C-alpha cells in the first residue's frame, strides 16, 4: 500500500515505533492483564446491550435502538486501538508499518467523529421525546432513526478524510519514534514539525477538530437545556425523576467523552506533555467505553430488566457468541 507523501518519509521505510507504556519487564504482565480485563469487560458490557436491544421487543423504540447502535460503535472504537496496544506491550521492536499507522489514525478518528455525531442524535431524540411528545412518534420513526444512524457513520468516516490526507503527505524525516500507544494526531504533527514548519496542516487539523467538538457539544448542551426547562414544568414528581434518570445517563457519557477529548484535540500538538496526552487518550478511548454500559444499565430500569431476562434465558451470551443466531426472536413477559 502506497500512501501520499510516503516518499518523504526518511526516518524508516518500514514505519514508526510506538513506545506505548514504557515499563520494566516484570511490570508488563500486570499492564497486559489490566488492559485485557478492561477490553474484555468493554466487549461483554456493550455486547450485552446490543443483544438486549436486538432480542427484547420492548426495547424496539428509537431511544433504545440508538443506544444499541451506540454500544456497537463502542465495540468498534476499542477494537481500533486496544488490540494493537496489547500486542505492543510484549513487543521488542514496537514497530507499526506506515500504512498500518495511517489506517489506525483514520479509523480511530473516524470512529471518534461518529461518536460525537451519535451523541448529538441521542440528545436530539431526548429533546423530541420530552419537548415535542405529540410529534415524536411521527418524526422519530424506525426509518428516520435508521437514516440518522447511517448519516452518523457516513459523516464520521468522511469528516477526517482531509486531515488524514494532509498528515499523510507530511515529510517525516526522523526520528520515527512516537511516544504514544497509537498513531494519534498530536504526536504525528509534532514528529513532522521537527522536520519542517507545517502551520497550514496544524491550522486545518485544529479547526476541523474544534469545529466538530464545539458544534456537537453546543448542540447537545442546547438540547438538554431545553429538556431541563420542559422537565421542570412536569407536575408529576415520578415523571420528573424518570426524565432526569434517562437524561442524566446521557449527560454523564457526554461529560466523560467530551471532557477528555477537548483536552487532547482542540489544540493538537500544542504544549501537552506526552504522559498527559497518553492518559487523556486512554481515558476516552478505553475507560469511557468500559463505563458506558454501567452508566446506561444501572440508571435505566427497562435496560436492567432486559439484561436480567437475557441472562436468565441465556440469549445475551448465546447472541454475543453466535452472532445472534437462531433462537426466540424476543422476550415475553
Question: What is shown here, in short?
Answer:
The protein is mostly helical and 333 residues long. 71% of the residues lie in helices and 3% in strands.
Task: Report on this structure.
This protein has a single domain, classed as Up-down Bundle (Rhopdopsin 7-helix transmembrane proteins), CATH 1.20.1070. It has helices at about 30-55, 60-80, 80-90, 100-130, 135-140, 140-160, 160-170, 185-195, 200-230, 235-265, 275-300, 300-315, 315-320, and strands at about 15-20, 95, 175-180. The termini are far apart. The longest helix is centred in the middle third of the chain and has 34 residues, at about 100-130. Helix 1 runs antiparallel to helix 2, helix 1 (about 30-55) crosses helix 13 and helix 9 (about 200-230) packs antiparallel against helix 10. The radius of gyration is 21 Å and the shape is globular. Helix content is about 70%, strand content about 5%. Strands 2-1-3 form a three-stranded mixed beta sheet. Residues about 1-15 and about 320-333 have low confidence and may be disordered. It has about 325 residues and is mainly alpha-helical. It is a multi-pass membrane protein. It is found in: Cell membrane. Keywords: Cell membrane, Disulfide bond, G-protein coupled receptor, Glycoprotein, Membrane, Olfaction, Receptor, Sensory transduction, Transducer, Transmembrane, Transmembrane helix. One of its GO terms (molecular function) is G protein-coupled receptor activity.
> Averaging pLDDT over every residue, what do you get?
82
Instruction: Tell me the CATH architecture.
Output: Up-down Bundle
Q: Helical region count?
A: 13
Largest sheet composition: 3 strands, mixed
Give the neighbour order of strands across the main sheet. Answer: 2-1-3
Broad structural category: mainly alpha
What fold name stands as the CATH topology?
A: Rhopdopsin 7-helix transmembrane proteins
**Beta-strand proportion:** under 5%
**Number of domain units:** 1
Q: Given the C-alpha coordinates, what overall shape results?
A: globular
User: Cα distance, first to last residue?
Assistant: 54 Å
Helix content percent band? over 70%
CATH superfamily: Rhodopsin 7-helix transmembrane proteins
What is the highest CATH level, the class? Answer: Mainly Alpha
Q: Give the radius of gyration.
A: 21 Å
Low-confidence sequence ranges: 1-13, 320-333
Number of strands: 3
Order of helices and strands: EHHHEHHHHEHHHHHH
Subcellular location: Cell membrane
GO molecular function: G protein-coupled receptor activity; olfactory receptor activity
Transmembrane segments: 30-51, 63-80, 95-124, 145-168, 211-232, 244-267, 279-298
Keywords: Cell membrane, Disulfide bond, G-protein coupled receptor, Glycoprotein, Membrane, Olfaction, Receptor, Sensory transduction, Transducer, Transmembrane, Transmembrane helix
Amino acid at each position: 500500500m502506497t500512501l501520499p507523501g510516503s516518499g518523504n518519509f526518511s526516518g524508516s521505510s518500514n514505519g514508526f515505533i510506538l513506545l506505548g507504556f514504557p515499563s520494566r519487564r516484570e511490570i508488563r504482565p500486570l499492564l497486559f492483564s489490566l488492559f485485557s480485563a478492561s477490553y474484555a469487560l468493554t466487549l461483554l458490557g456493550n455486547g450485552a446491550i446490543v443483544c438486549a436491544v436486538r432480542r427484547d421487543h420492548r426495547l424496539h423504540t428509537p431511544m433504545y435502538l440508538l443506544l444499541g447502535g451506540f454500544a456497537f460503535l463502542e465495540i468498534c472504537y476499542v477494537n481500533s486501538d486496544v488490540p494493537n496496544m496489547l500486542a505492543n506491550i510484549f513487543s521488542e521492536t514496537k514497530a507499526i508499518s506506515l500504512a498500518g499507522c495511517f489506517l489506525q489514525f483514520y479509523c480511530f478518528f473516524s470512529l471518534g467523529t461518529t461518536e460525537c455525531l451519535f451523541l448529538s442524535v441521542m440528545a436530539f431524540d431526548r429533546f423530541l421525546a420530552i419537548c415535542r411528545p405529540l410529534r415524536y412518534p411521527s418524526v422519530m420513526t424506525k426509518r428516520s432513526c435508521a437514516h440518522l444512524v447511517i448519516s452518523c457513520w457516513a459523516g464520521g468516516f468522511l469528516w477526517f478524510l482531509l486531515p488524514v490526507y494532509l498528515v499523510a503527505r507530511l515529510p517525516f524525516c526522523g526520528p520515527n519514534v512516537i511516544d504514544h500507544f497509537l498513531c494519534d494526531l498530536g504526536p504525528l504533527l509534532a514528529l513532522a514539525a521537527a522536520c519542517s514548519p507545517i502551520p497550514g496542516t496544524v491550522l486545518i487539523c485544529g479547526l476541523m477538530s474544534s469545529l466538530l467538538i464545539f458544534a456537537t457539544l453546543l448542540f447537545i448542551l442546547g438540547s438538554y437545556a431545553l429538556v431541563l426547562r420542559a422537565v421542570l414544568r412536569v407536575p408529576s414528581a415520578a415523571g420528573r425523576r424518570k426524565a432526569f434518570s434517562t437524561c442524566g445517563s446521557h449527560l454523564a457519557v457526554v461529560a466523560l467523552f467530551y471532557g477528555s477529548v477537548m483536552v487532547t484535540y482542540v489544540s493538537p500538538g500544542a504544549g501537552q506533555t506526552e504522559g498527559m496526552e497518553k492518559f487523556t487518550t486512554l481515558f476516552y478511548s478505553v475507560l469511557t467505553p468500559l463505563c458506558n454500559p454501567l452508566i446506561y444499565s444501572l440508571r435505566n430500569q427497562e435496560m436492567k430488566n432486559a439484561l436480567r431476562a437475557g441472562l436468565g434465558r441465556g440469549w445475551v451470551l448465546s447472541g454475543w457468541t453466535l452472532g445472534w443466531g437462531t433462537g426466540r426472536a424476543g422476550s415475553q413477559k
